[in-house]
Amino acid sequence: MSTLDKHSTDSLHSTHAPSGLRARLTDAAAREATARALFVLAAALSSVTIGVALCDATVPEVNILYVNPGFARITGYEPQEVIGVPLRFLAGKGTPPDQGEKLERALVQRRAANLLLRSQRKDGKPFWNDMHVNPILEASGEIAHVVAFITDA
């Protein structure tokens, strides 16, 4: 940055600049930082090899809102096939019966749970799904969303 540019920037942030201009500059910088953070977060979710499913916990079914490419690679299901579907579809035949109860208890207590599910890929092949489920709480303490991380155990 040149001396002139630095001086111009400093003068905009000085106490001599109109307060409305300072507020707009601060708001714009905050929006830019938020946009950048969201971009990095989206890139990170797209690049990890584990499956990630973000779900709506405000509905009784805990429906899937988003899945990353890792989820599609592990399960064989593309995002458009599972968006709106309850997360429990991953608990297939052979899932130990206590695993669903374990998840329900954890969510009631607003804590994370580690589950072992017998899931089925889209092609019908079974796999052991080591699923870590974490609640995402609102400021009020209510569970708004659930994020599930899946791996082929």
Count of distinct strands: 5
How much strand content do the residues show? 25-35%
Please report the distance between the alpha carbons of the first and last residues.
Answer: 52 Å
Total helical segments: 5
- Name the helix and strand elements from N-terminus to C-terminus, one letter apiece: HHEEHHHEEE
Poorly predicted runs are: 1-15
- Which descriptor suits the 3D outline? globular
**Biggest β-sheet: count, sense, barrel?**
5 strands, antiparallel
Cross-sheet strand order for the largest sheet: 2-1-5-4-3
Residue-averaged pLDDT, rounded? 85
Level of helix content?
40-55%
Radius of gyration of CA atoms, rounded to a whole number:
22 Å
Question: Explain this structure to me?
Answer:
The protein is an alpha+beta fold. Helix content is 41%, strand content 27%. It is built from five helices and five strands; from the N terminus they run ααββαααβββ. The chain has helices at 3-13, 19-47, 69-75, 79-82, 98-108; strands at residues 51-56, 63-67, 113-120, 126-137, 143-152. Strands 2-1-5-4-3 form a five-stranded antiparallel sheet. A hairpin with a 6-residue loop joins β1 (51-56) and β2. The model is unreliable at 1-15 (pLDDT under 50).
